[in-house]
Amino acid sequence: MHKLITIFLIGGCLLLFFPGLLMSNNAHPPGKTAKATAAPPPPGCIGAQGTIPRYIYENISGNYLDRLKNAPNFPQSPDHVEYLSSLQSSYNWNNNYGSFIRGFIKAPETGGYVFNLTGDDYCEFYLSTDTLPSNIQPNDTTAYIPGWTGITEHDKYLDPATGINPQNSDTIQLVAGNYYYFEVYQKEGGGGDHVQVYWKLPSTINQPDWAIIHGSHLYEYACDPICPLAGTPCDDGDPNTINDQQDGSCHCYGTPVNPPFPCIGERGSVRTLYWDNIAGNYVSDLLSSPNYPLMPDRVEFYDRLENPNLVNLSEYGTRIRGYLYIPESGQYIFNVTGNNETKFFLGTAETPDPNTDLIAHVPTYTDHFEHYRFAEQTSDTLTLNGGTFYSVELLHKENSGSDHFYVFWKTPFARDTAWHVIGAGNFFQYSCELACIPQGTPCDDGNPNTFDDKYDANCNCVGTPCSDPQCTNSLGYTPYDECGSTDKHSNSAEDAWLSCQPAPSPNPARGLSHWIHYDFGALFTLDQAQIWNYNAAGNTGQGFNNVVIDYSTDGTTWTELGTFNWAQATGNSDYQGFIMSEFSGIIARHILITALDNFDGSGCVGISEISFSAFDCPPAGTACDDGNIETINDVYDASCHCAGTPITNACVAQDTILNNTPIPAGSYEIQATITSAGTVASNTTVQFIAGTKVTLKPGFKAERGSAFLARMVPCNVVPVQNEDPTQQTEIAEIPEKTDFSKAFLQLSPNPTRTWTSIRFNVPQSGKVQLAVYSSSGQLITTLVNSFRESGTDHKEFPAHQLPGGVYYITLRTAGEVITRRLVVVD
Q1: Where are the CATH 2.60.120.1560 domain residues in the chain?
Q2: I need a surface site. Which of 121, 153, 281, 408 has the fewest CB within 10 A?
Q3: Which architecture, in CATH terms, is 259-430?
């Protein structure tokens, strides 16, 4: 369960520019984590001397460089370009962005050089042995920062025991007059941000001071021109397309007037449907929900094929459906990461075939950028045709704890060999979607002159127009956000906390100090914190400057998270603070924040507010339910994942027959077959485990309130940990007169104006398809298309999405085909 903990105890950016900086907006030519290897540049890549471009990529959360390097528009399409007269950036550009600098250094002397890197947050510096980017080793940084430093904090990460400082390079031999290719990467989460590269020349190597590399030694990288941002209007020269746009990789193309598939829809936005309140870790849990696929609980729109885990929700499933346009012919490779199970399908038909078109799969869970945990995460190398639409579908299931999914690719037009998230510039929505958000669900209709927006009975998001005369006068109408917490903080001293007297710290190592101690009352796994420094107008200098943060599970034993430099508040009433993501992943009940100093040197230190985002994480060994009926003794592990021990078959007999009598409670584990015509009484739990077959004969029933489970588990074989429907059956509340030996298909209500419930029985395990057809026989939608165990199931169908008329629901099982007539009334 996700919890947001907000503590109102203590209340962003200071924008400074260094001399000699020029700014531009996506104009002008221009790619410790693994670096992508670039191709050798053509001759003549050494450009102008004196300034060097810094490419800036906005709206990338977190502190880690993987988020920058895997972004869809990296490195070819930055949002902004900043021109530097030295290898020193501006200060406090923004929050949640990354930057990239590349070019050449011309050595002024022959001999040994040492380089030093400072920056905020994570940064890396690479130096080639010559002018070729390919001579930078992928996993060998020249210098790096595993967190953040101050602008002149050259030795923050120096290890006194070993003398190793990752901010420093080794002594590198350079030749006067030669050019050396370099790259600088920087990722900013929240707070202050900057990056600098210093050096010591052969003639100054023994001196204590570092010098920033000046523009007189720097030359632009003049190859690989910038691509326009995805969505930029263009003209592809084809009269048979409309809405021509750039895709962010220097390709201009539009939407065909006569598309190859009639359901190719809007481009540039990834429509993502969510089904809530579904337990279990596996995609099959989503597919078996009665509300899937046509009754989702909510919809979100993203600019790329990812959900990067921003709110840590639990027990939901996700589906993305659409079309991927391939701009160039060549070889493509796809990769998925996710938590929990994630499947990605790619096909050549109007929609992918779930039985043949699965190309990448996370069977349990991975971290965000853990590309190689499972072999099946990565597709085969696929030869795709340029100018072609391919249908795609993503299915994702989250149970508890952290949650995310990403779809990456490697393409023939990429400028490096890194995995990149697929951007919405190459994605077209599936326009024939029948899935319908329930009536009354809040939404945003995009119209500022309406309020109380909700989905109506026809699945349209509509609002109530505001009343005259206010609404008819555009100057008189002001839309307001719904009541609730905002990112802004007042500048009143009364809304802040101030300490002017040091006190003994709960952590003896901090001694007498100014500190704040948070006790959440239970263990939580923290995600991030939003911090508003002391924002009292005229007194922001009393805010926390350098701070040390400790955390503890019991309030006695403390672990240091690190020392951090917080940005000074603005003192304005619209101050929005900053995000601190270093809390992500720690398990704690207690947080201790100690001020080392403030900004003005006075004796008082304060803060306005801190809001922690966290989710429950029971201790390892705590009992849970992993949603997999193939396991027992489910417990949380140290990483907050719930997993159980696979069930085995004890095989106590060869076969067993349970006659038409009450079946005693318990587990029946048989080597070959179980045959039963008995009764599972109310308040009784019965489990059949057979090696080859479970047969439920006419007369078998499970009374209301009973629990009956049947599964196939061969003797002495541990079943594979998955949730494929072929591995399990669950039967509950079965009508007494149901005949399990035959397939049946029931529609209720019928006729209908709104929804109809489709109930069906599968008498024999095998391939099952449940589909809806028009009166002319045209396929409208498929509700089930997978292998299923025998048993009953049902699906909810939004009939009001269809025009009034006659439709046919068809059930195909291993041995039978049943069709029922459905009448939809306007």
Answers
A1: 31-221, 259-430
A2: 153
A3: Sandwich (2.60)
